[in-house]
Amino acid sequence: MKHALRPSQYAILIAIMLTASVGDSLLARGMAQMGPMDIHHMGRLLLHAPFNPFVAGGIVLLIGFFAAYTTALSWADLTFVMPATAFGYVVIALLGRFWLHEHLSITRCIGIALIVCAVGFVAGGPSRTEHPKLDQMDAGLGPL
User: Fold this and answer.
1) Which residues touch 16 (CB under 8 Å, ≥6 apart)?
2) Is residue 143 in some structural domain?
3) Angle between helices 88-98 and 106-123 (to 10 degrees)
């Protein structure tokens, strides 16, 4: 049995993709500004990192990611949520290339394309796997 997602559920999946991708990109930019860390100065640098505006913005977006992610897991299986949000790899690649000015090799592009194509196989299934015993417990009928 196939379940259709509501528009609000699509919005949650998009929020997961965007908050994770943009949040990670902000963290990468902020930490690049902080410079390389070594084991002897890591504590001091990590205490200063949250005061970098890019790191702070990344942390805020990743908190938003966590909220959206836990919301999605409340109505969908992990095996649906992770592949359904895999388009975030494309967003990360684009942000890395055009905003962070990172090199994007043809090998990485092919790998990202393979991931996105494979998502179609998984995302075509139901968002929640049917578990008759769990459904009965949720309905208050108790265990079988």
Assistant:
1) 65, 68, 69, 72, 81, 85, 88
2) no
3) 160
* Distance separating alpha carbons of residues 106 and 32, to the nearest angstrom: 24
Q: CA–CA separation, 82 vs 92, rounded Å?
A: 15
Q: How many CB atoms lie within 10 A of CB 56?
A: 15
Dihedral Cα 16, 31, 112, 12, nearest 10 deg: 0
Give how many domains the chain has, as a whole number. 1
Distances from the Cα of 28 to the Cα of 6, 84, 141, angstroms: 33, 24, 49
Count of C-beta atoms within a 10 Å radius of residue 24: 19
58 burial via Cβ count (<10 Å: 0-12, 13-18, 19+)? buried
Q: Look up the pTM and report it.
A: 0.78
**Strand intervals (E) in the chain:** none
**144 domain-assigned:** no
pLDDT tens readout for residues 4-63: 788 999 999 999 999 999 999 999 999 999 888 888 877 877 888 899 999 999 999 999
